[in-house]
């Protein structure tokens, strides 16, 4: 042994350590990659060794290599090994490596749960600390859920070192597992008054971050924070508190007034350094009055060399701008100067400010200045930024500041000369928007656009034609749509039919083709009116000549439109040859005015009364049918839209037929409401909505917005969105300066407001960004905490202290905390699904197009909602397996397993010499069926729920610890885990809740014939198994005991004792604790994958004996019941061997049928189920 | 704070700490992009830059760039202060720190950072406490080492 160790350490001497590696890499500058791959090979060898020190060294080197950019994910398991080393030295390295390379996609991460839990409860504060630190970097939702309670316990640890870490990490836990926020919040609040300043500042930090989301929850804490602010001398904390107040003041105006004084004091006391002062002012709440502001402008002017301050000054100004626009507008020149700054950050900030500073008076000047910068700017990002800013500034508040739209169009045209911008579509959108909405400008716009089309080669010829050629889209459309304003339509037509056009992107060509016809129609009309049939025929000939180039297009849309139009034109040609006047009919193709439609109009269409979006349209197909068709898809769990895809796609014909029938019906039905708000529009029919390009325009402005500064407040947030999707502007008045009114508009401007459906529902809730990571934290903390929200706790269950021994013979059903929780979760999930479903259906419904997409408006719009939903399965099937069977079946997975499960509870009282001690034994084993349980996905969401719940039983099953007796109870938890064949591992979490130190613990069980405790070799049946650790007060640890099981057909109960020596100040005593272990039949059951056809065969085979039970008087819903059964007996999905088929019989009774190859097992299982059901 | 990067003037990464879980690929991409952007900036420019939807706060100490990514609402100056405090801590621990110290003892640099920040938030504002925690952890490590040596003999 000793020799081995010596050998190990000698080996180690020859290994490279980190320093050697670093040095080696530095010495191999030329062939670094080769050297490193060599090192990685060495490391792989080292990782194979048993010596943990060698492994740790290897992992340390890997961590370094990871930083250099090498993939080390293959070593994830080794990292976990090192994490679980007993020595701090190695553990530290293991956790460091884990925090560096684990992420949510790392699959081994779930193996760490128990290790982390163990480390969290380690007696050494540094072990705990290192675990917390590591966890903070790779916490996943699962880890957060499983460990939330452990971390919460640590928040009241004796050591401040641990407390502050625990408090901080709670924030990460909240983000990942928002359900934990409510239960943990009271304790978090306590920590605000923690005696240790570190813990206090940690708590302030966390609450401050939380308050970003839902500040009103934290309003009640304002007095506390106020006290902290006035008493604390720690700048770090102060800044956080001020930031928090910044979030709170908008909710409580009185707070602002109260804050002025202490804030001013703070600022004055920090006058010494301007930096410190700025630091404080920056986050200061805006409503705290302008008293402390005047110095700000100074910051921008004075310390020019200090660029950080310049930047911050601008930042601060943009904040003041929201409340005191005038005071900032005075510094316009200064801000414009900043645009010349070398530093991009500063320029961007200045740009940002300009947005708020424009008025009717200075708009032209500012834009001119910006345009000159556009020309000068190097670097596309900054130029693009400038471009979007110009458009933002001009279009803000529904073009409020623009008095001369001709000027604006020229600006836009000017902007098209920009090379390589990504924002061509933005310019295009603006052109379209202005042309559509400002009727007076159309003539001018058309002339500009035709010029643009004429010089299209300039635009499109630039190498980066990706971006800017989008404007041709707008130009073509405007020229086509408003062709009556064209001076020389013929010339434009020629321009649009140039061969060069075919090099443009498909969607633009498509618009070209479409608008060529519009143009053609208007030319025809002109010519016919002027009685020039030859000229008209020439035009037709031109069309016939040029259109084929589009017919050959690779783009389907272009091809389709072109070939259709070509035929049309050829037909016209024939008619013209016969001297038939055609112009009227051709123009009739494009009759009607296009109205701009508000981007959100579609959403606002109220659901007509009596329309139930969730109701079945067709009878759902029977589930057995679809089950046979697609056995795989059925069990797929994460299918977002379970109903829709199930409809056999093969049935295309059938679908088409139905669609046809539906259209027919709609056409004949005079009461069918045409979905468009402007019924005069003509629609062609088209088979599906998929073809309609749908622009999602997100507008962060509420719909009814005559409000004052609303928009300004949201501006920052909006700005970002605007960059991606340009929101439609809206008539809106804000930030008027009196002098603005003096300027008369250069022309009569009639800005058409966008249409909204009648009785649109006012709402702005869809403004929330669903991707916001903090959205989940928007939780109301003032609601009282419901039982269902308790955190999942490891300790499983408690029973009453007064439990009589007879009663303990029955498996005691714990208070199901988890259950309501599940229900709730389920409920929530259902609601979400409903919402999604609703959304989905809405999308199927006709959609109105935002005005920017004028063109598609003419495309067919109504397609009736046809959501194919299948009916809820009225019954679900659970299959169970016997281990013997499952072994043979699971050969492929290579894992054999037996599970012992729930229900073992005992509670004992015992008096000791000194005082009465109450001991509680609480046991629970749970299966960790890590089997790939093939989850059944019944055809509808509803039916899916129970099964999913059943599958959930890997979750920790939380049990509320009914508060046990007065002093120092000791809690013991037992959980079961898998072991090999016919063995069962029972893990016991022993927690010392007394104040004594516990040692020499020994666990012994009175073996039965069937179930035996596996003892160390050489010991007799009467010897106990020692527990391999000691327990200081308040510490818990987990011990595992292995049991051998002969038969699983019978439930088992074992009596046992735990003996230990309790040591406290008054001396030590030897004490004993009795408990009972209950192994229920169902707990042996294991989930096994099984295809439905195999399962059906088995059921038919007749090898299985059958039995059934019926239980009456059940008030629960069937789904809940099923969930409950699954929960208690660990049925999940399908199981083999034992088939249970529960159906709801009548209103209040349930019958459960079971089939199994072993009738004893079956009857026992059914008996246990009956017991469960009886309690429902 | 979303992440912290330390890199040299040559663009070599010296330390990286991510407080948001990202895949290696994303991390690499971000690192490459940021290192380039920051190195391209002139010394006289301000320490802040807006990048994607984050704000980057960076500062150069000798040949090393310390670079933090914070969210929009976060305070830039306090982030600068955090960087400075971290540098101070490194300096105290290593005794006038230089780039080589961080290269060769990169795990120590991480440990110090971990004692100072947790999950991207300042954990301990007192320099003394941070160093004390690190020293004690080191002592523990040493004790373990000694113990294993004793055991061996």
The mean pLDDT of chain B is 86
Residues in helix, % of chain B: 40-55%
Order of helical and strand elements of chain B: EEHEEEHHHEEH
Mind describing the biggest β-sheet of chain B?
5 strands, antiparallel
Q: Going across the major beta sheet of chain B, what is the strand order?
A: 2-1-5-4-3
Total number of helices of chain B: 5
Query: What is the CATH class name of chain B?
Result: Alpha Beta
What spatial order of strands do you see in the largest sheet of chain A? 1-13-14-12
CATH T-level topology of chain B? Beta-Lactamase
Strand content of chain B: 15-25%
Backbone CA Rg of chain B: 17 Å
- Count of separate structural domains of chain B: 1
Low-confidence stretches of chain A: 271-305, 625-650, 673-748, 763-768, 795-825, 836-980, 1128-1140, 1142-1146
Given the C-alpha coordinates, what overall shape of chain B results?
globular
CATH architecture term of chain B: 2-Layer Sandwich
Spatial gap, N to C terminus of chain B: 48 Å
- What is the overall silhouette of chain A? extended
Membrane topology (chain B): Peripheral membrane protein
Family (chain B): Belongs to the adaptor complexes small subunit family.
InterPro entries (chain B): AP1_sigma, AP_complex_ssu, AP_mu_sigma_su, Clathrin_sm-chain_CS, Longin-like_dom_sf
Organism (chain B): Ursus americanus
Task: Explain what you see.
- Chain B: InterPro entries: AP1_sigma (IPR044733), AP_complex_ssu (IPR016635), AP_mu_sigma_su (IPR022775), Clathrin_sm-chain_CS (IPR000804), Longin-like_dom_sf (IPR011012).
- The complex is a heterodimer of chains A (1176) and B (153).
- In chain A, 48% of the residues lie in helices and 9% in strands.
- Chain A has a four-stranded antiparallel beta sheet with strand order 1-13-14-12, with helices on one face. A four-stranded antiparallel beta sheet of chain A has the order 4-5-9-7, with no helix packed on it. A four-stranded antiparallel beta sheet of chain A has the order 8-6-10-11, with no helix packed on it.
- In chain A, a hairpin with a 4-residue loop joins strand 2 and strand 3 (916-923).
- The longest helix of chain A is centred in the last third of the chain and has 27 residues, at 818-844.
- Chain B has 153 residues and is an alpha+beta fold.
- Chain B has a five-stranded antiparallel beta sheet with strand order 2-1-5-4-3, sandwiched between helices. Chain B has a two-stranded antiparallel ribbon with strand order 6-7.
- The radius of gyration of chain B is 17 Å and the shape is globular.
- Chain B starts with a strand and ends with a helix.
- The chains are: A alpha+beta (1176), B alpha+beta (153).
- The interface between A and B is large, with 79 and 57 residues.
